[in-house]
Amino acid sequence: MEKKKIISIEERIPKLKAARKKKANRRLLFYLFLFFILITIIVYLQSPLSNVDEVKVNGNNNVDEAEIINMSEITEDTNIWTINSKQVQEVILTHPIIKSVKMKRKLPRTVMIDVEEHKVLGFLEEENDFTPILDNGEVIKKINNIDVSEAPLLKNFSEKEFLKRMLTELDDTPMEIFDLISEIVWEPTKQNKYKIKLYMTDGFIVQTSIRNFAKKINSYPSVVTEIEDGDKGIIHMGVGTYFEKIEDK
Question: Residue 136 — φ and ψ, nearest 5°?
């Protein structure tokens, strides 16, 4: 029968001490590494390395990027981690054309501001000037960046009820047709207070109604393709659709 070797406590103590020392060294290295990381983070947060390097604005069309950045009050001296995104968004939303805004950080030092603007649905002629009117019905004054060709001129809409109905229909109009409308004139009669006349950028005139305008005007491109090249006149879009040719004088 094989005899088991007996190891005395004196022989085991050096091995236990070595193992404990190795474990203590590993723990010390871990704490030193953690301490180094914390110091690095603190230095980064307190240094210009955490300041904003660039602010990018997306989605703006009628509002200048510089104006939005100025409203955000974010500068190159702003610490990227001290920005109150909710507050920035609330301030930018005070601009009458801005419909929604989102702000996010893009590490290491970039701030992204994504905006959505209200759609300009038309221009009202007031005191020899053109003032834009938005999809929420608000008339904007003192905005110089909006191109008048961006939306149709709305004429003679003296009653807000019919103007509001017209704006709702324009908002539902496909953009490819919306861009073809140069001018809309409200021409109410005793029999039909919803009567309107459209002047199109391709030279045609459209006689129709505010009622179901977006649905009726949707067929405009196909109607135009049926008209012979060179012919100009009025496209009547009511219960039925027909073309009235106007002879050149």
Answer: -95, 5
d(CA 125, CA 146): 14
Could you tell me the mean pLDDT of each successive run of 10 residues in the chain, 249 residues long? 54 66 78 81 75 94 93 93 94 95 92 95 84 90 74 93 95 95 95 96 95 95 91 90 80
- Superfamily name with CATH number, domain 49-117: membrane protein fhac (3.10.20.310)
Tokens coding 65? 């990027």
Rounded to two decimals, what is the model's pTM?
0.75
Tell me which residue has tokens 């009820």. 161
d(CA 98, CA 171): 17
| Domain boundaries 120-245, corresponding CATH code | 3.40.50.10960
Sheet with 195-200, strands from edge to edge, namely 129-134, 120-126, 153-155, 181-186, 195-200, 205-209, 233-237, 241-245
